[in-house]
Amino acid sequence: xxxxxxxxxLIPRLIRLSSAAPKDPRTAWDQFWGNIRSTGATGDVLWDSxxxxxxxGYLPKLAHLDPALPVVDVGCGNGSFTRLLAQHFPHALGLDxxxxxxxxxxxxxxxITTASFAVCDMTAPDAAQTVAxxxxxxGWTGDANVFIRGVLHVLDRDGRSALAANLLPVVGTRGSVFxxxxxxxxxxxxxxxxxxxxxxxxxxxxxxxxxxxxMPGRFGAKQRAKAFPTADWNxxxxxxxxxxTRPLSxxxxxxxxxxxYALLRARQPS
Length: 270
Ligand SMILES: C[S@@+](CC[C@H](N)C(=O)[O-])C[C@H]1O[C@@H](n2cnc3c(N)ncnc32)[C@H](O)[C@@H]1O
Description:
- By secondary structure, this protein is of the alpha/beta class.
- The protein has helices at 2-5, 11-18, 25-35, 53-62, 80-85, 99-108, 127-137, 157-171, 188-194, 204-212, 221-227; strands spanning 71-74, 92-96, 115-119, 145-149, 177-182, 233-244, 256-266.
- It has a seven-stranded mixed sheet with strand order 3-2-1-4-5-7-6, with helices on both faces.
- The termini are far apart.
- The mean pLDDT is 95.
- Residues 29, 47-48, 75-77, 80-81, 96-98, 101, 121-123, 149-151, 154-155 line the site of S-adenosylmethionine.
């Protein structure tokens, strides 16, 4: 009984660490990306495993996307998935509202001619126009596929709905949305304990995130149904996913956060 409760002794430390994070989420994300020293399997970024293993698990589902269309990686961060997606689609456009993330993603993809990046707040009213302009600059017009990983669970309910609505003109009639999000079922204390935090120590990349960023929520079928209403979207497929982190507990294997995936298409007028 006492050992089950011991994790709650972490709370004062979590409050102390997170109290310095900027209150405005965009400022927090931009500061976070500006402070990152390295990425990948030994880097500072909690959700960057440095491996293609998670994306490879999604490939059978991504096979339902039109392979002739470009893919837009919404909330791309340092672009680790954008770079992988560029191997499977004719072009991959990574978008993030943090200019520091986009700078970093551009540097990390410098040798990939079919990847490009732009700054874009995907919840903003002009987001679809920004996407169209960025695609055009890379020689693409018309419908696109959309890939989202680990973004909706950091947005509030209004942000999730605004982002989803902005995707309708991006996917048009031919594109699809594939999303994969963390859907951890417990409290923030359970979440950080799951990733190895104890009262005595917290894995470096997890501490980095706790210090700099708002505490994430979860995104599963319930949140998807609200953000992607059936009046606008057809749900093609959904299920559980495993979101891989940078190795924390074992240097040679990623840790895993329980997640959720969905494949959606815009509903067409009948
Ligand atoms: C947890 S990271 C995931 C990064 C990347 N998708 C990955 O899986 O490696 C979330 C990213 O979403 C970005 N983000 C959050 N809200 C956004 C918004 N409204 N528009 C664009 N990007 C956003 C953040 O800046 C951050 O880079």
